[in-house]
Amino acid sequence: MPVTIADVARRAAVSPGTVSNVLNRPHIVREATRTRVEAAMAELDFVPNRQARALAGGLNRSIGLVIHDAANPFFAQVADGADDVAVAHGYGLVLTSSRASLARQEASLRMFAEQRVSGVLLAPTVDGPTTADRLRQAGIAVVIVDFPGGASECSVTVDDVTGGAVAARHLLDLGRRRIAFVGGPHRVRQHADRLTGVRRAARDARRTSGAGVSVRVLEVEEHTVEHGRRAGARLAATPGDVDAVVCGNDLLAVGVISELTGAGVRVPEDVAVVGYDDVDLAALVAVPVTSVRQPMAEIGRAAMRLLLSELSGDEHVHEHLRFEPELVVRASTTAG
């Protein structure tokens, strides 16, 4: 079996990324580390592959970014933040969208592997082993975005369980007791975590006050305004069943509010609505949306900084950054 970059990394006690840097960007690696890696290569009779030889001198200055949906303002701002840092350090960003499809995600990762990008920022569709693991074995650094990372990688995420609880507690403090959650599908971890937070807040309210609090789930397949409208139509068809809605993102909230108000349901008097992300649109619609804010651009910037740190050499230590969300109150929950 051919000797791999991972084999050399183990022998030299460095990361695969450091071995890749010795092959492709030796000038950024400390001399002592470079000498140790080169000695390991000689001991193992390691032969760089054709792509690595072609990249000698660090000609490839691309960073791959795999997100769920390029049309979603949340991911657009994450990408914008990542691009700011990449460009400032002489890298170009290559963007692909998985549409929450594992097959599309894996195809994007394979493409980036073939193109020998310097690194990848990945917003995963699912948890568990993926092509990203094989990228690391090939010496391509990967940072996980908007998803918890493992011990062998860096990650940047937001505490979505807390975010869901913050949204629900706000509604409970307003006296709302019949809450609907609009989001999903369940395989999307971010929405599943937000629902967990909503249920946790409802459970705590029942325990501490004895109040009768219910949580109804309306699952959607896509996180768009149109799918929010469809959920809103289902809610409007059973008036009085709910007096509050937590949506998995702001686009869904905009659609829910549009459909409810079109059906004569008053927002927030009859039904209060909370969104998630705090994209620009949330403040611009006819009924401005109360939203759980995520620092979208900063998530992208932080992820890119971690990736560049990993590319810089063997002094890198994997980090897991987690931002705390905050509530921004607007007219969709509090009548002016």
Account of the protein in words:
There is one protein chain. By secondary structure, the protein is α/β, with parallel strands linked by helices. It folds into three domains: 1-59, 434 Repressor (Amino-terminal Domain) (Orthogonal Bundle), CATH 1.10.260.40; 60-158 and 296-324, 3-Layer(aba) Sandwich (Rossmann fold), CATH 3.40.50.2300; 160-294, Response regulator (Rossmann fold, 3-Layer(aba) Sandwich), CATH 3.40.50.2300. The chain has helices at residues 5-12, 16-24, 31-44, 50-54, 73-88, 102-115, 131-137, 160-173, 189-209, 225-236, 250-262, 296-311, and strands spanning 62-67, 92-97, 119-122, 141-145, 154-158, 178-183, 214-219, 244-247, 272-277, 290-293, 320-323, 326-328. The strands form two sheets. The protein has a six-stranded parallel sheet, with helices on both faces. It has a six-stranded mixed sheet with strand order 7-6-8-9-10-12, with helices on both faces. Helix 1 (5-12) crosses helix 2, helix 8 (160-173) crosses helix 9 and helix 10 crosses helix 11 (250-262). Mean pLDDT is 90; it is low at 50-59.
